[in-house]
Design goal:
Blueprint (H helix, E strand, L loop, with lengths): L1 H35 L29 E2 L5 H4 L3 H16 L5 E4 L4 H15 L2 H4 L17 E4 L1 H10 L5 E3 L7 E4 L3 H4 L17
Antiparallel strand pairs: 1-2, 2-3, 3-5, 4-5
């Protein structure tokens, strides 16, 4: 009787052990399969910072509406001449009932790299991502020479009045991206590029 009970217990224990081992093996196979099936493009432009960039890198929370007069790195690290032009334009826009805010300004190289990696993942390839995000070495945001402004009403105001302050939209696909063109007050803004891939500066 005791021998029969012990035998049943051993069988139950063995069955549980085999089931656990099988579960571990199956889980391992699934994980390995997921890793090997990841697209190679996901490794292009992988973030250097592992997602640890913050305000000091120029990151602005998407929900924020940062004033052009704010003392935050994304704003204060812009080229002084560009920043002065943006603030002069913002003062004039305010008189027309339009308040400009900064969606993105200066960025560290690490933050730019993170944005590029996100774009590769979103658009599926480095080639398509380059229509929206430049590499850190070629980004006018990293050098402090570009600013993304909102809201839409502000972009519309700038499209009509920005040249007076030397602020020009550079890319047809980015109505928020403005750079300083000192000759614009006298000569108007230059023709826009369709997107950053048509800009010779991104090919240098």
């Amino acid at each position: 009787m005791n021998n029969s009970r012990a035998l049943r217990q051993r069988r139950v224990t063995a069955t549980i052990g085999v089931s656990l081992l099988a579960a571990i093996v199956i889980t391992s196979i699934i994980l390995i399969g997921q890793q090997t099936s990841s697209p190679a493009s996901a490794t292009v432009g992988a973030p250097l910072s592992d997602g640890q960039v913050g305000e000091d890198d120029g990151k602005i929370d998407e929900a924020d509406q940062i004033s052009v007069f704010a003392d935050t790195p994304a704003v204060s690290n812009l080229d002084p001449a560009l920043l002065a032009a943006v603030r002069n334009a913002a003062t004039a826009a305010e008189q027309d009932g339009v308040r400009l805010h900064v969606n993105s300004g200066w960025r560290s190289a690490e933050y730019q790299e993170e944005l590029l990696a996100d774009a590769v993942e979103r658009y599926g390839s480095a080639e398509e991502a380059s229509r929206w995000v430049a590499t850190p070495e070629r980004s006018e945001h990293v050098s402090g020479d570009a600013v993304d402004l909102g809201p839409v009403a502000g972009q519309d105001w700038l499209s009509r009045n920005g040249a007076e302050y030397g602020l020009c939209q550079i890319y047809g696909n980015e109505p928020w991206h403005f750079e300083l063109r000192p000759s614009a007050p006298a000569n108007g803004c230059p023709p826009m590029y369709d997107d950053p891939t048509a800009d010779p500066r991104t090919q240098r």
